[in-house]
């Protein structure tokens, strides 16, 4: 379930690991991508909430036809859970890549030199 989300340009300045703002560090696109993934996750979670409510109502009704409908609803819930896992995996990868790009290159040089006594 891919959603075309409206672009919301909330340019609040988030601090990066180096203390500069995302816009100053040129990371605005990365933060926008992360924010979009979070919005996609929230949409799927909201859909699951509605589906779970429907499943509960169908179950409480004890009507055979409603119980049959629950099978498809529960399958959609399970599918949505897989989508959330995938979206969070993408978020983790994107955040990790962004973090590693921000690491100063000199930190590896400092580790290779032995301290002098």
TrEMBL record:
Q: What is its main location?
A: nucleus
Question: What segments bear the compositional bias annotation Basic and acidic residues?
Answer: 100-117
Report domain Protein EARLY FLOWERING positions. 26-104
A GO biological process held by the record:
entrainment of circadian clock
* Pfam families tied to this protein: Elf4 (PF07011)
Give yes or no: UniProt keyword Ribosomal protein: no
Where in this protein does the record put region Disordered? 1-28, 98-117
Q: Which InterPro entries match?
A: EARLY_FLOWERING_4, EARLY_FLOWERING_4_dom
Q: Which superkingdom, per the lineage?
A: Eukaryota
PANTHER family according to UniProt: PROTEIN EARLY FLOWERING 4, PROTEIN ELF4-LIKE 4
Query: What is the name attached to this protein's record?
Result: Protein EARLY FLOWERING 4
The beginning of the lineage is: Eukaryota, Viridiplantae, Streptophyta, Embryophyta, Tracheophyta
